[in-house]
Structure prediction request, 84 residues.
Amino acid sequence: MDFQKVQTSKRASRIESTWSGGVQSWKLMGLRATSKPPPRMHFGLGEDAVAERSHIRWPDGEVSIYDQLLARRRVTAIHSQAAR
Prediction:
């Protein structure tokens, strides 16, 4: 999963992914509009073909939820402010 957001805060985004094998949680720091490529996270699903749900809490409190994400695919999570 790639992440895009316009941000000046130093707080972390929190990401949680659920699949039949359990739950993985991460904290991601430093999302902001710069010349660097967007941060990327890998979700290890084992033999599963689908992540049931990925839940992102952005530093400003906004929440993004992605359901039924297929394995072996790249998904870009975009904060609503990044689309402007």
